[in-house]
Amino acid sequence: MARWFDETLYDTQRQSFRIDREIYRGRSEFQEILIFENATLGRVLALDGVVQVTERDEFVYHEMLTHLPLNAHGAARKVLIVGGGDGGILEEALKQPIERAVMVEIDGLVIEQCRKHLPSVCGKAFEDPRTELIVGDGVKFMAETEERFDLIVVDSTDPVGPAVELFGEAFFRAARDRLTDRGVLVTQNGVPFFQPQEISDTYTKRKKLFPLTGFYLAAIPTYYGGFMALGWASNGLDLARPDRAAIAKRHAQLGIATRYYTPDIHVAAFALPSFVQELIR
User: What is the domain-level CATH number for residue 85?
Assistant: First the structure.
């Protein structure tokens, strides 16, 4: 008889994934961790009952949170990743000609199990000499560091449990102060169709702190409910006005083989449907 994993993100609906083989199940200090295999999606990571990443479609999320802001910037040298224990953001960032990537993840057990069981997601990113891995509190790190970054990526779970403070005004203020003049903060901001308040709340907080802020979209099949919103904010770089010619030139020069991201997708991602625009008015 087939075993199923029921994702419990929403109260009024849920989606199920067949567990063809359970690979790891455990509990860290912060959350329940489950890794299993599914015939269609490959290996799947779930935290506290919510799917975080699958081998089949992880490239969409990770490419759009890294290559889009990095190609828009054009000269980024230092990247900070808060969260991202599966290593996918780190791997994509290191495909770019950056000098340093600092990753701060609160749950060391997530890193350990993803390195062991999801190597297709992280690759050799954790062994790259440009990587500095810190197992610790990203909120505390952001408040205390004096270093400035060209890109800060917050790859977190939804605003529950250990991730709540990553959506707070104090954290956004600290991130603002840690950006270079043209530096960019990017975050995951949920599925607008089912999590509209997450976008509205984030926009309200950031609008008070940053001169430039907004959202772009990516279609990630595993995240039930349609496209996902990815938030951005900057002190000096307007991501919402992409220069396609410059972006295409940079992307071609990099020679990176991406599976979702293209210069055309880069530009199109900022075309927001009316119902999303209404959430940020």
Answer: 3.40.50.150
Same domain, 221 and 273: yes
If one counts the domains in the chain, the total is 2
Let me know whether 19 and 110 are in one domain.
Answer: no
Q: What is the pTM of this model?
A: 0.96
Neighbours of 149 (CB within 10 A): 23
Catalytic residue among 11, 155, 243, 264: 155
Contact between residue 217 and residue 190 where contact means Cβ atoms under 8 Å apart: no
The identity of residue 120, as a single letter, is S
Containing structural domain, residue 34: 3-54
Is 11 an active-site residue?
Answer: no
Note down pLDDT in tens along the chain; length 281 residues. 789 999 988 889 999 999 999 999 999 999 999 999 999 999 999 999 999 999 999 999 999 999 999 999 999 999 999 999 999 999 999 999 999 999 999 999 999 999 999 999 999 999 999 999 999 999 999 999 999 999 999 998 776 666 678 788 999 999 999 999 999 999 999 999 999 999 999 999 999 999 999 999 999 999 999 999 999 999 999 999 999 999 999 999 999 999 999 999 999 999 999 999 999 98
Q: Are residues 49 and 65 in the same domain?
A: no
Return the closest-CA partner of residue 235 out of 279, 281, 188, 178: 178
